[in-house]
Fold this sequence. Notes:
Helices cover 29% and strands 22% of the residues.
Amino acid sequence: MAYSNRPSRRVVLSGMTALSLAPALPAAAGGKSNPNRLWYRQPASRWEEALPIGNGRLGVMVFGRTGQERLQLNEDTLWSGGPYTPDSPEALAALPEVRRLIAEGRYKEATDLAGAKMMARPLSQMAYGTLGDLLLTFDDQAVPSPYERHLDLETAIAGVSYTTPSGTISREVFASAPDQVVVVRLEAKGRRLGFDLAYRGPQEVKYTAANFSGSATSLEPAAPDWAQREAVGTNGQDIRIRQDGPQAWLITGRNNSSQGIPAGLTFAMRVQVITDGQVSASDSHFSIKGARTATLLISAATSYVNFRDTSGEPIAIVRRQGEAAARKSYAQLRQAHIKDYMALFGSFTVDLGGGATDLPTDQRIVASENADDPALAALYLQYARYLLISSSRPGTQPANLQGIWNASTNPPWGSKYTININTEMNYWLAGPAGLSACVEPLLGMTEDLAVSGASTAKTMYNARGWVAHHNTDLWRAAAPIDGPLWGLWPCGGAWLCNTLWDQYDYSRDEAMLARLYPLLRGASLFFLDTLIEDPGGRGLITSPSVSPENSHPFGSSVCAGPAMDRQIIRDLFNHTIAAGKTLGRDSNLIAEITATVSRIAPDRIGKTGQLQEWLEDWDDAAPEPQHRHISHLYALFPSSQVNPRDTPDLVKAAKVTLERRGDLSTGWATAWRINCWARTGEGDHAHSILKSLLGPQRTYPNMFDAHPPFQIDGNFGGAMGIMEMIVQSWGEEIHLLPALPSAWPSGRMTGVRVRGNIAADISWTKGKLAQLRLKGRPGEEVRLRHGGELQVVRLNAGGVYEMKV
Ligand code: FUC
């Protein structure tokens, strides 16, 4: 049971049989036969062409090169710094004055004072890092023909196969969750295989652009050269490489310090080689000669135990995991990996119609701009599910801004957890797409924040409960960072709570609710203590705050009572009430929250007919009318406070806002717009935006989302947009084909989850519902809405309802 307790990150294995020769790798399936497959006719020339694999904790970018293979590695706890508490001791004294300045409309002065007194120390958080690269330099440097590399989403295996005059080579790479190792398998046919194995430590990368607009950018110069080489070296802190037995290698080092926070982690990586060839080893590299097969088993760990404890023993962990895996055959490792992965991936299928499946994926992305490719949208959705399974498993860290895939010690925005949209967006898809089990790390992180954020609430606001602002990191820092314009936003923790509640609502997992309730309760306590009366008499509001990252007309974003805060806190309070009642807890507190929720200032429609972003009607005069954040549309999506059934006037106002903001923005911002348009019921509009998201401006050749640069939220948010066009569940109803675009006249989805722990299989032809099958609790009443009509049906004694139209 995924939620029953928080599992340890460490998996210990024992009692395995000796590694034996595995059967030959299966022939690479043709591009046409398996729709859930990314494939290419050339190796990755840059990072955004390499293919990601991961087991939630360990990640690898596989380049598929033939002269020198590059495997870029990550471990999800390898971040800079160490345990720290950044809460400003001067914040509390400044709070009343900041509030007074805001109430008097002196926003600039309020911003300056908050900037000087309330912000985190240090002002920035710690960054996610990389384990560096393994580089395999092959004896055979001939240009191959033919060549193919692929990522099979049905096995979570990246493959490369090619032929040179000396014969054929095939390789497979996967990251096993059951065995906690990355497995690299090389096989030669009609020849022998020789290569040198070397390591390159963590380094900085030059980013050509980390901006909010413009076309896709690359991290490295593209050089489509078959013999492309990376420099071997050991940059990174205190890196040591040594042999660990005759066929194994141990690499150790430590993380970076940052912003004056000392480096608190050590890491270890172990590579074991199993081959029928000859191995010669030194402290700088391995050489393998005359092999028919070679298997590399890579284990990696850091000393991170939790956000306050870095006393783990990574060397012992990587030895144990590597040695245990070495006692299994390649076939056993592979089979266990596929079985484990398919238990998650296999629960959902999608078919949106045909597409250019005979084109390699990179060419297909380019072609989709001009010719609609429904099957590419289906692949994008399944790829997002693959990415979530690969970056977020019970006991691991949650998916960060780049999931777990990051090549540098200086990633954009630190590859952190930005909780004013990005981290939440990463998890929207989980429940509906049958991946509730992948939500556990988000719950775990929020549990940590309820501890670190309690100190922030006390120190900064003298409030009960807990608070987190717009970002957090491995160390669960909860204070406002970067500057008031971005950081002075007290609703990050509350939004995480609402995201978790939504996920609970899909699974209705009681064990999850038991873990969630204390978090909801603590987040609610914070707002009971810090909400203030609007001097204009409109109700309860936050102050100070921002409407995330968007400046109002008065030279700042700092304000009181932005719409998003009111919407998030309304949801938080209602979820806390529902959870408290379900669990029969805290009746007095629940009564107090119930009395408070109705006093929160309501949403307002402004003078241009728009949904007001701020408490005042400032939208029209705001300096960036097309700002990427659409924070006040939280009420439309992911919430359903604003919806076409109950609040048609507010939906109309939300559409005015959406029109004004424009369709295209950064990856995640474009994805959010798709979901919003789907909620308004406008499938063709949602689809036209999706088409741009899938095109080469916003999707890299490896199908990673281009913010630019790479940020994974767009992948998850875009995939959720596809789900929302087909099935929605809100307001105690299942909405069937609520925003079906005309571009997908026939299709099918199976294993869609809707709120209340119901699984739905749905198919449609010629734009009309054809079949529906629901599976849930026997005898349960279900409300179906389709084409404006409401139908109430009951699941039978077997928990099934079937409709054929
Ligand atoms: C927020 C967004 C940016 C970016 C960053 C990680 O600040 O406004 O677009 O996604 O998070």
